[in-house]
Design goal:
The protein is mainly alpha-helical and 131 residues long. It has a domain of 87 residues. Helices cover 46% and strands 3% of the residues. It has six helices and two strands; from the N terminus they run ααααβααβ. It has a two-stranded parallel ribbon with strand order 1-2. Helix 2 packs parallel to helix 4 and helix 3 packs antiparallel against helix 4.
Amino acid sequence: MAPCARCGSLGRWRDNPALVPERAGQREPQAFNLYTKEFVDALSHPRNLCPERQGAMIEVEPAALSAPWMDVSLAAIAEFVAQRSGLTTPAWAQAPGRFLAQPRLWGARPHTRAHMFGETPGPFRRRNDRA
């Protein structure tokens, strides 16, 4: 990853969702949540706040993972970051394999599900990813 033209940051491995599959390795999906959280945390780090840096963090397509919902989640994160930064969503995040046919919901209570449908950000909602 090249340094950001504006802030000069080189970033680290956790600054790129494309590296989540590599880091999760054979421990997925348990490790997926850990490494995805680290990426999301890295997005908020002061060195990564400029739009150019955020765009660089989402430009590389992640390898496919063992569960479709993980691929969908990475695409939704990339689109969310792009929208928030005023950038174009990466083409890889729009691929057909980056959408679920049926909603993925966690929690059995009806009010929890209703909350998920109402409060899930657009990029996740478009992909039926409402965790």
